[in-house]
Specification:
Structural class: alpha/beta
Strand content: 15-25%
Strand order of the largest sheet: 6-5-4-7-8-9-10
Distance between the termini: 6 Å
Length: 433
């Protein structure tokens, strides 16, 4: 059922409203969700190259379904990659490159600091310079930009939504960070900090929202929203999966400890010389080739000490029976995993340690693999799969449908961000199913 809600002030108070409901489901189907709000400035002042390209593309697509006009500002190579993933920009999106200075990896730890300072300057500038009556979405929160964003949002009165990623996990206070970084990120947890009434925040999924809320001040907590990390599916032609006489498991991405690379090698060693199972790596093998070969991990043709194209990656993934995610169980409490969407797009099930993010996905989308509670359980599941993998049936079509940006837009239209429009007499059309 769809409703038109007309908010009418009563007794001179904006909080008292008369809500008039009228079902117009048939008319809704003829309307485009871009009629919801007028103009949006969507900016990415941090990413370059392929960094976060799937999130950038899918979230841009989601917001383009909510606004009449979207101004997209990002580094030129990011725009090119997003355009490629989308198969062309939506007709209501106007993309223009901004100049992000390339800060080389040779700067070491100073590199991230300089990138965050640059992002803070650009975020502030675009909030100030945005066209009149234009909302702003900053798609990548950097801790050092928080205070400048808060100040400029308060000064301009412009509605700003900041999307939080990995930096928010530093609110736990576990890792050693600089004084400036700690001071900046603690703006989200310090109850004495005044947050601009028009400044909002979002994390990627309700499971992450549940985890992060206890770390926030009451002012930020009431302004923290969530929307689903989505993806652009079926844009790349996939080859068909063909079963072989062995169980083929793969690790996607560079072999890093934070991503469970050491655990992957341990599991591969455990099954080394077992003819019924094969382990593969699909990602940059730079500096890891000796370890991989020692563990008996197969490196597919075309994979090496370099980044591979998404097309080649998908071809390699389609050859797998399962994608193995060895992230630590405590990982992804505060941030989403973009790599799981490669599995979903290629319609390959996953085998992983149980964590809050994966559990949350299984809850809302349906299961598309197995989540295990520890190393021994994961090893036992692999042994079971050697004998029983043909019995698996996963409804990947339903998973894709839920995680398409068009459907996420309909869900986000119900959020407080949509209802925080200043004019309380504004006529709002909301999705209610």
């Amino acid at each position: 059922m769809l409703y038109i809600s007309l908010a009418i002030p009563c007794n001179g108070r904006n909080n008292d409203t008369i809500i008039l409901g009228l079902g117009i489901w048939k008319n809704y189907k003829k309307q485009n969700t871009k009629k919801r709000m007028k103009k949006l400035l969507y900016i990415d002042t941090f990413s370059t190259g392929h960094m976060h390209e799937m999130f950038d593309a899918s979230s841009l697509r989601m917001f383009s379904d909510m606004y009449n006009e979207v101004y997209y500002r990002a580094n030129q190579d990011s725009i090119d990659n997003v355009t490629h993933l989308l198969g062309g920009m939506p007709s209501n999106v106007k993309a223009r490159p901004l100049n992000i200075v390339n800060i080389y990896k040779s700067y070491g730890k100073l590199r991230r600091f300089l990138k965050q300072i640059q992002a803070a300057i650009l975020d502030s500038w675009y909030i100030i310079a945005a066209p009149k009556e234009t909302d702003v979405v900053i798609n990548y929160m950097t801790a050092l930009a928080l205070y400048p964003i808060n100040w400029t949002a308060r000064i301009t009165g412009r509605r700003v939504l900041v999307v939080c990623h990995s930096d928010v996990q530093e609110l736990q206070g576990i890792n050693k960070v600089s004084w400036l970084f700690k001071k900046s990120i603690n703006m989200l947890s310090n109850p004495r900090e005044k947050i601009a009434k028009n400044l909002w925040f979002a994390v990627l999924g309700d499971a992450i929202l549940d985890n992060v809320q206890p770390l926030l001040s009451y002012r930020v907590k009431e302004r923290m929203l969530s929307f689903d990390h989505t993806a652009i599916f079926d844009r790349i032609q996939r080859k068909s999966h063909v079963d072989t006489d062995k169980l083929v498991l793969g690790y996607v991405g560079g072999l890093r400890g934070s991503k469970g690379g050491d655990v992957f090698l341990r599991i591969a060693r455990h099954f080394k010389n077992n003819p019924k199972v094969e382990f593969r790596i699909i990602g940059n093998t730079s500096g890891q080739r000796e370890k991989l070969e020692e563990a008996g991990v197969v490196i597919p043709k075309g994979v090496g000490d370099f980044f591979i194209s998404r097309e080649l990656m998908y071809d390699c993934i389609c050859d797998l029976d399962y994608i193995l995610y060895c992230f630590p169980p405590e990982g992804y409490k505060y941030t989403a995993s973009g790599t799981v969407f490669d599995a979903i797009d290629c319609e390959r099930p996953i085998l992983a340690f149980r964590n809050d993010y994966f559990s949350g996905l299984f809850k809302v989308c349906g299961e598309f693999g197995y989540l295990e509670d520890g190393y021994d359980s994961l090893v036992s599941r692999i042994e079971w799969l050697m004998l029983n993998r043909s019995k698996d049936i996963w409804n990947m079509k339903n998973v894709k449908e839920y995680l398409r940006p068009e459907n996420a837009a309909k869900r986000f239209l119900r959020s407080k961000w949509f209802y925080s429009i200043h004019d309380d007499s504004h006529v709002k059309i909301i999705a209610n199913g």
